[in-house]
Amino acid sequence: MMNKIPMFSATDVHTYTLTFAGVLDDDFLTSFCPEGTVATAVDQHTTLTNLCTDQSGIIGVIRRLHNLGCTLISLSTKQGPSARLEADSRPTGVISND
Fold first, then answer.
1. 31-48 burial string, b = 16+ CB within 10 Å, else e?
2. What are 28-82's pLDDT values in tens digits?
3. Do the domain assignments include residue 4?
4. Which of 21, 43, 52, 81 could hold 87 in an S-S bridge, CB 3.0 to 4.6 Å?
5. Which stretch of DSSP H or E encloses residue 86?
6. Chain CA centroid to CA 50, Å
7. Where are the beta strands (DSSP E) in 1-98?
8. Spatial separation of the C-alpha atoms in residues 64 and 9, rounded to whole Å
9. What's the total number of domains in the chain?
């Protein structure tokens, strides 16, 4: 018996959390991230949360980070209505240094 694997489309919107080595300048969020993305920088590592986009969008963000010399540490995703509701309730373009 084969296990059924859920099929997702490349155009499905997901909410991503991306952590990388490096610190962004103030313009990165507004220029390259979807509205509502939040950046938190701690000890030369940055985490982008509430990154709501499809597969091509997340690949674009990762490519921009790569071009800036940043090293990807982790990438996680959520899908479904709860991910979208969470995304809609967050502030836009917040950068914090904890």
1. ebbbebbbbeeeeeebbb
2. 989 999 999 999 999 999 999 999 999 999 999 999 999 999 999 999 998 654 4
3. no
4. 52
5. helix 81-88
6. 6
7. 14-21, 38-42, 45-53, 71-78, 95-97
8. 23
9. 1
Residue 8, both tokens: 């997702």
Q: Which residues contact 13 (CB under 8 A, 6 or more apart)?
A: 52, 53, 54, 84
Half-sphere exposure of 33 (CA within 13 A, CB side): 28
Q: Write out the residue range of the structural domain in which residue 77 sits.
A: 14-91
68 in a domain, yes or no? yes
Amino acid found at 42:
V
Here the CATH number for the domain that contains residue 38 is 3.30.70
Residue with tokens 């509430």: 50
**Which pTM does this prediction carry?**
0.71
β-pair partners for 97: 41
